[in-house]
Amino acid sequence: MLENHKYAVVDIETTGHSSANGDRIIQLAIVFIENNRISNSFTTFVNPKKAIPLFIQDLTNIKDEDVKDAPLFEEIAPKVLEILQDHIFVAHNTNFDLTFLQQELKRVGLPKLVCKSIDTVEFAKLMFPNIYSYKLQDIATELHIELESAHRADDDALATAHLLLKCFDQLQALPLKTVELLHKRSFQLKSNLALIFFEVITIKRKTYVTQDYLEYRGIPLKDVKKEPAPEWSKLAYPISNDEKNRLFQHGSLKLEERPGQYKLMDEIHHALIESKEIVCEAETGIGKTLAYLIPSVLYGIGQGKPIIVSTYTTHLIDQLITEEIPKLYDILNIRLRVAKLKGINHYIDVYRFWEHLQQEDESYDETFTIMQVLVWLTITEEGDLSELNVSGGGQLFIDKIRRTSEKKINDVKGIDFYERALRRSEHCDILVTNHSMIIMDTERETKLLGHGCATIIDEAHQMIHASISRKERIFSYTNWKYILGQFGTLDTDHLLYKLSLLNVSLSVRIRIEKLFVDIVESFDHAMGYVISTIQSYPHKSKSTKRTYAMEDLNLDKAFFIKVAKNLQTFIYSTKPYVGSAKKNIIDEQLLVLVNEWEYWLRELEIKVSEWDEIFLQDKEVEAKWLELDNRSVPGSLTIIKRPLNYQEDIKDAMAPLREQGGIIWTSGTLTVPSNKYFITSQLGLSSNIPIHQFKVESNFYKGAELLIIEDMPDIQQVSQSDYIESVAEAIVQTVLVTGGRCFVLFTSQDMLRKTVELIQDTNLLEDFMLFAQGITTGSRMRLLKSFQRFSKSVLFGTNSFWEGVDVPGEALSVVIMVRLPFSSPDDPLFKKRAELLTKNGQNPFSSYSLPEAILRFRQGFGRLIRSSADKGVFIVLDRRIDTKSYGSDFLQAIPNIPVKKVSLENIVLELENWYTNEG
Q: For 918, which of 154, 253, 552, 617 is 20 to 30 Å away at the CA?
């Protein structure tokens, strides 16, 4: 029990972020903790002597009338100062609460609060390093902490107090060795957690009990026991609808009957029994995941072999395991062995992590991430680094400790997480993997996916992107400079300087330094040549970003050949000295240094290959282009190479899986009305493979309507700024009448940014929370969570938001599509693809551009209605859907819902009528 300290957990609600700019406290709450339990609390509204902004009222649900009779801060400040004395100040983000409170105390003439502090954001990130979000509302949900009204100071302070106690509990549950390792680095933290770690160490040393942990060179790791094979009674596939109904009513879920889902189940069942290959397109609302899991798992049980389920992203793998497979357990009343298998670089290299523990940390981010990893190693079963939620700076450290080689390290036998994953994949009932693993399996001597009896390819259309990504190469100037910077010079504290510790003679060190300087100089010379060539080309666009096809630049390869030669000479000349030093070393610290040298030399070897593919190879069936932002030269210089011939790779990858049994390709969007085989032909599938389409009942989309704004200007007839003004007006009018809950989908990041900036400048949506991809910080999932948190919110996104985003219910009521999602004709990838299609006698527009845009259109519409209870409006601002002959192809691609043409002036009236009728 932690009983040596008293804690005051504080939360404040304010009119804004800055006391200096006149913002004031409107509610203050303090929860006191003594003897490891909540002992007392204090809460009050505070009169700010100014109106509370509407978005703050929406956020906190605190209105002007709530605070009009409340005391002023100067009236309560002396009491607040007094009761906070002799306590450790705790807040969920002390940088805001403590700083704001100190500024307000100073404003009313009171002394500064002198105290130690604990930030529960920092503490929670350490104790729960695998939670997806550390916003109080999110972590409270994750840890089952009651939080009745988020953004109310009293409820937030109470939830923060419970979070603090949860952190205490988690800390005390850690192995003593872990806490000691944490304490060693805790003095670099931003809050006073060192004293808490020390107290726990003291307690544990007095009462230490052996815990069920492995240790690797003093690092505790969770010991994972082998999961026994389950024992099943005879399970048969439910043939009739009555049997399916009884099955779906079994357990706690009580799922409703869906005719389309039952038909999909039957189709998959027959295909697996007959070892056939089929394609299944299932609309949103069918219940696709359970429809393939039930028949495939029952088939696998009968065969005594695992089924393989492949999807696209890490997020979708985790969603399948944590959300969908538990439903299967509930329905079938069985437990299954589920294995998750990702690429080798997803897993931690424990030996490499141990090496970094022996070195001095480079920054706060590195220190903090090391501490997170230490805790995570005591709780992870998978060793999958994507489980960790680290800062951007911390991600650099995570990249250093990834497993990169199939070569086994003898002294980590038994605790190598990648090896664990391989063993589990050989003894499981469901093997969940991703498309990249399937593509990469062709390159392995021992096939990792060779034990299955059937394969489900979910999000099947994304197999194309997985195949492209395997051969995609990206040159980043910043990344190259970072790797070269690891070597330094003989007079800096980097690798070249540390050669002296390995007893490499001075003359050799000087020679190696000269070789490295040659690399840096030739690299800088080559980059200067590239940039001067770009700048010699006219740049008419007002955008700061430039994009050029590499073949159009006609670059002299002599500059790039010199860099490649210098790299190879340096690696060839340095390796023998490092290898020789390794043979004679006994001291572990020096062994760490040698291994660091070997690691960075391997990185340089990878860079040699990358350099060759980017600058020295030219292939007809690939697109290669350069991107640069004038605001950041040369730092923003990036070159991307992407293959256009990928069907053969997919065929090769699927060949061994076809020999094992049936294959089910499935997705929500696999066809377009004008070209049923658009996606399957890109996947390299034979036209003989049947494509089955499964649609939901007609009333599923009863709450949907599509509006075409018929008087939007034609972007080809007006300037971009005029078009953006009309787009901004349509968005503002829509948001004001619907009260937010709106996605705005763009095809261009540049247009998105300019539209958001214009809306912000007008202040017409100042009472709404605006989240914009590429502008608001955070990942796609984090933006989505933030969007869902506020009722008055708008999310602006580009193509990457059009897939895999599920916002059921009232969190989303409107989708605005700014332009039909055609690829830009200036996009280098599209230009190269169009060139190849033309050579083959095909029309690039009808054979590729149009069907691709229709698929994206379907995906954009698919964000709106996720269940039969949802209602929403799909608004298209691009008049081409009405004025061009191909417009009807877009409308035919989505469900049969009411389509209306309205003017920009009448959109408000139409939306009001729709909401009245639907409400």
A: 253
| pLDDT tens profile 20-67 | 889 999 999 999 999 889 999 999 999 999 999 887 887 788 999 999
Q: How far is CA 176 from the centre of its chain?
A: 33
> Domain of 125?
7-169
Kindly state whether residues 329 and 345 are assigned to the same domain. no
Q: Do 622 and 750 fall into the same domain?
A: no
> Distance between CA 442 and CA 907 in Å, rounded?
54
Same domain, 39 and 132: yes
E strand spans, 346-464: 430-434, 454-457
Residue 141 annotated in ligand binding: no
Map tokens 């770009």 to a residue.
Answer: 534
* Domain match, 52 and 165 both: yes
One-letter amino acid for residue 11 of the chain: D
Residue 164 carries which side chain, given as an amino acid letter?
A: L
The H or E element spanning position 161 is helix 153-173
Spatial distance between the Cα atoms of 488 and 513, rounded to a whole number of angstroms: 9
pLDDT band, very low/low/confident/very high, at 2 (cuts 50, 70, 90): low
Question: In the numeric block, which tokens belong to residue 302?
Answer: 């009968």
Q: Is 703 annotated as a binding residue?
A: no
The strand order across the sheet containing 88-91 reads 37-45, 25-34, 7-14, 88-91, 117-119
For residues 769-776, give the mean pLDDT.
Answer: 85
150 in a labelled binding site:
no
Residue 218 resides in a domain: no
Is 332 in the same domain as 392? no
Structure tokens at 642: 């992407």
To the question of whether residue 210 is assigned a binding role by annotation, the answer is no
775 is in an annotated binding site: no
| 284 marked among binding-site residues | yes
Co-location of 516 and 626 in the same domain: yes
Strands (E) in 17-172, as ranges, are: 25-34, 37-45, 88-91, 117-119
Is 809 part of any domain?
A: yes
pLDDT digits (tens, 9 = 90+) for 325-349: 999 988 888 888 999 998 888 999 9
Full DSSP string of 439-483? HHGGG-SS-TT-S-SEEEESSGGGHHHHHHHHH-EEEEHHHHHHH
